[in-house]
What does this fold into?
Amino acid sequence: MKILVINPNDSNDMRLLIEQSCREVAGQSTDITVVCAGAGVASVEGYYDGAIAQVGVLEQIQLGEKEGFDAYLIACADDTGLYAAREIAKGPVVGIGEAAMHYASMLGYGFAILTAQAKSIAVLANNASAYGLSQHCRGIFAACMPVLALEDLTSDERERLVARAQAIIEQSNAEVLVLGCAGLTQQQTYFSQQLGVPVIDGVRAGISTLEGLVKNKLVTSKRNTYLR
Amino acid sequence: MKILVINPNDSNDMRLLIEQSCREVAGQSTDITVVCAGAGVASVEGYYDGAIAQVGVLEQIQLGEKEGFDAYLIACADDTGLYAAREIAKGPVVGIGEAAMHYASMLGYGFAILTAQAKSIAVLANNASAYGLSQHCRGIFAACMPVLALEDLTSDERERLVARAQAIIEQSNAEVLVLGCAGLTQQQTYFSQQLGVPVIDGVRAGISTLEGLVKNKLVTSKRNTYLR
Amino acid sequence: MKILVINPNDSNDMRLLIEQSCREVAGQSTDITVVCAGAGVASVEGYYDGAIAQVGVLEQIQLGEKEGFDAYLIACADDTGLYAAREIAKGPVVGIGEAAMHYASMLGYGFAILTAQAKSIAVLANNASAYGLSQHCRGIFAACMPVLALEDLTSDERERLVARAQAIIEQSNAEVLVLGCAGLTQQQTYFSQQLGVPVIDGVRAGISTLEGLVKNKLVTSKRNTYLR
Amino acid sequence: MKILVINPNDSNDMRLLIEQSCREVAGQSTDITVVCAGAGVASVEGYYDGAIAQVGVLEQIQLGEKEGFDAYLIACADDTGLYAAREIAKGPVVGIGEAAMHYASMLGYGFAILTAQAKSIAVLANNASAYGLSQHCRGIFAACMPVLALEDLTSDERERLVARAQAIIEQSNAEVLVLGCAGLTQQQTYFSQQLGVPVIDGVRAGISTLEGLVKNKLVTSKRNTYLR
Amino acid sequence: MKILVINPNDSNDMRLLIEQSCREVAGQSTDITVVCAGAGVASVEGYYDGAIAQVGVLEQIQLGEKEGFDAYLIACADDTGLYAAREIAKGPVVGIGEAAMHYASMLGYGFAILTAQAKSIAVLANNASAYGLSQHCRGIFAACMPVLALEDLTSDERERLVARAQAIIEQSNAEVLVLGCAGLTQQQTYFSQQLGVPVIDGVRAGISTLEGLVKNKLVTSKRNTYLR
Amino acid sequence: MKILVINPNDSNDMRLLIEQSCREVAGQSTDITVVCAGAGVASVEGYYDGAIAQVGVLEQIQLGEKEGFDAYLIACADDTGLYAAREIAKGPVVGIGEAAMHYASMLGYGFAILTAQAKSIAVLANNASAYGLSQHCRGIFAACMPVLALEDLTSDERERLVARAQAIIEQSNAEVLVLGCAGLTQQQTYFSQQLGVPVIDGVRAGISTLEGLVKNKLVTSKRNTYLR
It folds into this structure.
């Protein structure tokens, strides 16, 4: 099974973090390639960045189709270009925001999302609503840090983020925390230990979801909406 | 990884079919045990059957906890006893209806569910609503056959069911079909070939979903609702 | 008219309180019998307790059918086993949570629910949503006291509960308070006097709702979902 | 207990039918007065009629307050002036559409409404949505007969209406039928016998609901919205 | 193009303020007449006032039809008598609450409404829900001042209102503010300057919306609901 | 007032049709420029086309900002790139699908949308849901003709389309028709005459909506989501 993971953020450091998470969770027979979208958006923060970055995401998927990938993961919490990607891929496509929210809804009564910037709240909220999962979403909160800063937290920054997450959980009565930024992908274990609730990293959730769909021999429906 | 699969229907024939599907989809390192709930309900058709069968489901999970299972699959499309099960299990618990609907929402714009009996429509519809997925559900349709009859279809019966599924898809404009009965678990491939749309078997979807959750080191939140 | 009231909590003290409320509100020609479910759950707190207790509720209804009861009240705020009960009863079945919420929606713009334990919040919220009444529900709050402690409040405890209820009303801008625990059934008058808003006790609301349904000659539909 | 029933339709024939239904269902100690609104609207068909008729409804309630009525029933299926009425009445106020829909939601999985004129469909649908009950409403269908014609059906007309109701139930898979016009109040028994599903007459449902609220010592909340 | 603006509040001072706003925003070829409803309600605060005032609104529209007006604006934030008005007018009818909320939904992610009295919150919330716009509405807040006091604010009162609006925006994370009272119609510019977010005055929004509908040659549909 | 209209479809013929509609509806002092997006998508049919075309839309808006445009209309019924556009424009941005649906919700109880291709149904449905207007949308139906074919209908094709629209209205009980494709912009008058219900052309609706917003001195909120 060959999975192509596309990082809409053109940051090689983030790409490496994503790759590490993918390797930690993927099965032995899963062959994972992680690329940046290459659209020139260093970090996707809000709708405009997403609109530009998604062209790169789609190009990578077109290349991926030629190389015979079985499935695609869009590794940005706002699921950049998800629906368009489904039109051009034969295999399944999921976004890390989508995968994380679906997992979260099966583990507790209500989840909260911690994202990088306040600008992304609307994007994530609209996605949650489109997926049907907003009824499980108790709130989306911003760390108010740049996406790229989340990749390489100092110890102090990390503790502040954990404290922020703790406050979010208490304020919203969420029972699960979703890490709403690929930059936090390597923080799942630490956050989970500190917070005492399930903490979901969409990168890992996305890889596992795709592995499941492929093992189920499921592909994107080409009956109408996603027919190219 | 040890997964306990519980068939709320006390039918050994169905248990064997479920076991076969589990084996077909599970990873090599996944150790799967399939048991019947043992509550004396031959086939779960509607709310009363579900209420009785769930006591057996919960007993199996309590036994499973003693034996150290990592995760649990409830193998009836109405997800018998799902929330209660989450209270007594440390690891994740999913139902085959739930798993199938989540997968379906990622593969096409709208899914339809084919269930055995009209009595189950309300159960599945209320579940879809509770999961947040009713906005993706274009309709739930009954084969109007007893659950146990679906285990062992004659060739004629199977063709009639395929024709029924085809009509459902056209009538509802669904792009994905969910098999809403564990008795149909071995029909996924054939239905998929005949219908030309993704067909989801909750048993397979459930095993893959649980494998993913366990690989993600995710467990049921014990912060409040599912704390015992 | 013969009404069977079933207390899913196996507490005789609570049964007596419930009986007292029933007598206070019932019409002269209404013959009320109050029994405990007998499933061995001393107090229903959360989904697992409810799953076990409902088997006792259903057994009592089956006995009740043999004895010719006209209607059934499930006297726990989480409406234990409500849908399953409708399948085996000819006459109407209502739960005290359901009855209270329906009444509340007709008396003010938005209600709040005061329940015993935080674990029950999800159960009540999911019920409110299934009944369609979550749009009127401004919040569900826990007294954070065991269910059985609510039966026999000291004067201090009662004042603290009233103060908690007052705070809930102000915080949520609710205009009506629902007592979300049968253990509070005898507190309606006192709470109402102290709080200055309508306070609804589901036990009384349930008896009156059933009396109404029976006088209307209405029974549970056996067209499909509740056909046994 | 004194209940004032207000018929927004200025038809004395309909008033007499309503009075008959009230008497058939009310308790012995309930003293019922039925009046017409007196606003000059012979039959309420749509929003404009309702806007005019509600002034009469409100005047009757003001008179009723002076005469010490305990509760008020608005006897038109579109619940003419319901919220405004709650502002000027101390006791509870319900509408027959509201009462019928609440009852219907407790008796089966989904109800259909049979109303007189297509113009009323929007009114009833908006009300169902405001009450939270649209998720239980499978459809609202018009008899396409004037409201006043429903008061005095010929045998042929009645059979055609029953056939229409039967078709509505089958088409919508409703399990309960709501008579969405006070003109049909005397048809409940006959329709119920012919259709084999619970048939709800809002007049009866409304009287019983009010009796229940009064026995529960519940009044309209004056905390904010309904404070005059 | 002739537009009739009807002020449901029988206040000539408010009528003059409304007229001023209309003139400021209307096109050169738009002929605007502003009248009071004349139903004797000095200021509409809540459902009862609205019910009485709407009869006056409807009478003015009937007069307007005789005089050949092309469109109608109902100049009270609770859109007094809106649906009924559509039944008797050939041209389009909009309410200032409705117009403002539609505009708000196109200018930012979520709006808040500042109204005069807490009693109006339910009215506005129910309207937002009926229009479909409650998902964009982050909260409705009361100035807790009488409607008529808003017409003629002292400098201190105005500053307090601005501070209240600022707090509302921060608390609710709204990105747009709707002035939920015609009495505030002349405050749009000042509030907008002070608050730094778009501030919408429904009077202006309503005039522009009607001008647009008329230029589009659009009238109220007479297919069913609004057919007289 | 200077409005830039951007046609995401790179068809000069369609651009000219759009320009004609704009001129027919715009005020005298409105200066309208119509351009194609220039992203190389001849006609936008579905999510992938939209993703590619939106980059061109955004480039045109960036150029427009330099040239001092006051407002922007995205002239494709799927509102290509709408949210991203709001981030880079100071003035208001609306889409023709959005503008048409808002107008429709003010003119009748429920609208239907006639679009070109079945693939666009999901796009329009998701948009309606995001705007909050799906509760007013009775159905979205495809003409099953290529977008560009709609520009230049033969008389026969036009009659077939009118017949299709008539059937849609009857089947869905819609009271208003939305033309869900810019290619139909010049058909509003004819369709309206033939169908007897209000027919909304988003191009005209969009121009009028923008003129209104500008006259109201309203701009896109830069408080958070649309801050660049």
